[in-house]
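G., before I forget:
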Amino acid sequence: MDLQGFGAQLASGTWITVQLALASMACAVVLGLLGASAKTSGLTPLRWLGTAYTGMVRGLPELLVILLVYFGAAMVINQVASAFGYTQYIELSPFVAGVIALAFNYGAYMTEVFRGALATIPRGHTEAGMALGMGRLRIFRRIVLPQVWRVALPASGNIFLALLKDTALVSVIGLEDLMRETAIAVGYSKQPFTFYLAAAFIYLGLTAVATLGIHWLERRTTHGMRTLSG
Amino acid sequence: MNWQVMIDSFPALAEGALITLELVVISGILGVLLAVPMAMARVSPRPWLRALPLAHIYFFRGTPLLVQIYLVYYGLGQFEAVRDSVLWPYLREAYWCAIIAFTLNTSAYTAEILRGAIQSVPRGEVEAAETVGMSPALIWRRIRLPRAFRIALPAYSNEVILMLKGSALASTITLMDLTGVARTIIARTYTPVELFLAAGLLYVVLAFLILGGFRLVERRLNRHLQPG
């Protein structure tokens, strides 16, 4: 495949794509833990909030959320800022907008994953922690969370793969990720098929690497666990 | 919040929603038609037949939908053979390009869902059909596929919702679907929050309707399992 010297450009775009995917996933994990805590909370309004969040995201297109965050959130932020007497225009960078939008979206999926994983931790573990005089936060951090990771990992891996592919959408608001760099290369070379196919194979490579990484993590976290096969 | 803009643009958005629905339904039906033979090949005892749809499934599940749409819409025009072919009047249209990309994409996901369903049809039922002397083709038509469709339905309804969300990408190749209409109106009125929220609301309503439809079909297909 002849890339006509655009290889370096595609590589720099790929790097942005990787950064965007990792940053969004980290935020989605945090949102997911918060969402799962809300959904399993004893407070009814919090449970409603969690349910409304996951239900809404299920039906909203990712692209729409990205556009809404990029164009909408900037307006809201500036209105709030000017209400406090701040006169300069605050601009939301495409990268930040992309992270917010993707984290909002995938945080909802992570909420469901963590909710399911939290339910598999026996109550006795928490009670044992309480009997030892641990605080609620410490029980969560030392007893519940380490076990939740292990249960949640396979499903989270699938979600990360979906997120990785959806980072391409952020190119629509002008982030110079792999997709956007490819479009620039297409503009110069007039060879759309060649370059979009190259981009497709780079994405395939990224998902392959991510799959390997997930398997490695899974092997690490299930280390010493008894499995059915022995 | 400018409520008037939301109300005024409702008829245009509703028209966009119809285009969105049309895209989802047409590529959904075509996708299933493609997915059935692929799923059947995936469970074949012959290794070469099993490997046949693998490349298609791997490519379309492993790459972003946006790349696939661009490959069809911008990419195909690179080849003179395509530009000179009788299909060019269609391949030039954003509408058909979106349908082609969505169909190929959803067929890959649906094939995997169907494969799982076919594999979970109880062996005893297939053996019973063999015992009464049904031919392999008849077993597929009367036993395995009808049973598999029923098993696959809940997972497939999820796939249709994902397709509904994915259809918003049609707006990136100038199509006037729900997102496309919203973006066009915003370019004129500059009220992104109002318009995107209104469009989002319509998407949620569409998802709700689709899920409701599937629930009705499911209840009808599983009539014999209901108590009473």
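DSSP finds twelve helices and no strands in chain B. The radius of gyration of chain B is 21 Å.

More on Monday.
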